[in-house]
Amino acid sequence: MVTTVTNLRQKIFGEIDKVIETGQPIEIERNGHKLKIILESKKSKLSSLVKRNNVINCSTKELIYNNWAKEWKYEKNND
Fold first, then answer.
1. Order of strands across the sheet with 33-37?
2. Which of 31, 38, 33, 32 is nearest to 1 (CA)?
3. Could you report how far apart the first and last alpha carbons of the chain are, in Å?
4. Which string of b and e fits 30-42 if b means at least 16 CB within 10 Å?
5. Could you tell me which residues are beta bridge partners of residue 2?
6. Which CATH number fits domain 1-40: 1.10.600, 1.10.443, 3.40.50, 3.40.1620?
7. CB-based burial, 45-67: b 16+ in 10 Å, e otherwise
8. How far apart are CA 18 and CA 1, in angstroms?
9. Contacts for 3 with CB less than 8 Å, ≥ 6 apart
10. Residues 37-79: pLDDT tens digits?
């Protein structure tokens, strides 16, 4: 939908609500330039994570049932 600034000014809240409901952008023409009001979709925080493959080089059973005691080092804190 193409509109002018004058028309948009008269019914801006209704037009913005229409964009939110339908997802259809509004095009505004002013002095030979076109502008758009568009609905920005929310981006999930997790969507920017990079998938990592082959990070763990053993089976899940090895991780769960491994005796980690030999890997742990207890250091007494003298504070």
1. 2-4, 26-30, 33-37
2. 38
3. 71
4. eeeeeeeeeeeee
5. 27
6. 3.40.1620
7. eeeeeeeeeeeeeeeeeeeeeee
8. 11
9. 15, 26, 27, 28, 29
10. 999 887 788 888 888 877 778 888 888 888 878 777 777 776 6
